[in-house]
Amino acid sequence: MEIQRFACKVPGCNKDYCNQFNLKRHYEGQHMGVKRFRCKICKKYLSSKQNLKEHRFMHTGIKPYACPYEGCAESFRQGSQLSLHKKIHQEVIRRFRGIPQVETSLSLLTSALIKTEKEEFEENNIKLLSQEIVLPSITSPQIGITLPSCEKQLTIMS
């Protein structure tokens, strides 16, 4: 018996769902920008109950999605982040499964891989922050520039 699927008809969107309700919710949230769920703390609107639930963890600092792999202490605010993280472990296991001297230390390998990724991310951020940014000189007075963090308008003269 084949289960009927309900496909999104928006060009370029390949999502499909097992019922029309889920398809409608997808269409409203992803393609129409409908956001029905509001955070009581910061008043931000979100498109789904799950997004609101995970958004609240940002305010509380709770990271309820813990990595189940032995020796790994990572935890996340979003289930999707945990899923991506677990792929690192799965890839290490796939590559090294069956090698006796490695089999016992798979958790150590995944921890090292995660640490390396974090270090590379931090290194790249430091490089970006330390780059010297040269702005073109302003040849005439610029009137009406509003800075994002300031309500006042500034006149900049070269």
Strand order of the largest sheet: 1-2
User: What is the number of beta strands?
Assistant: 8
**Gyration radius, rounded:** 24 Å
Instruction: Return the structural class.
Output: alpha+beta
Query: What is the element string, with H for helices and E for strands?
Result: EEHEEHEEHHHEE
| Share of helix, binned | 40-55%
Q: Bin the strand percentage.
A: 5-15%
Shape call: extended
Kindly report the oligomeric state of this protein: single chain
Contiguous helical run count: 5
Low-confidence stretches: 149-158
What is the average of the pLDDT values? 75
Note the main sheet.
Answer: 2 strands, antiparallel
Measured between the Cα atoms of the first and last residue, the distance is 75 Å
Pfam families: zf-C2H2
Keywords: Metal-binding, Repeat, Zinc, Zinc-finger
Protein name: C2H2-type domain-containing protein
GO cellular component, one term: nucleus
Walkthrough of the structure:
- The model is unreliable at 149-158 (pLDDT under 50).
- This protein is α+β, with helices and mostly antiparallel strands and 158 residues long.
- A two-stranded antiparallel sheet has the order 1-2.
- Helix 3 crosses helix 5.
- It has 5 helices and 8 strands.
- Residues 6-36, 37-64, 65-89 form the C2H2-type domain.
- It comes from Blepharisma stoltei.
- Pfam families: zf-C2H2.
- One of its GO terms (molecular function) is DNA-binding transcription factor activity, RNA polymerase II-specific.
- This is C2H2-type domain-containing protein.
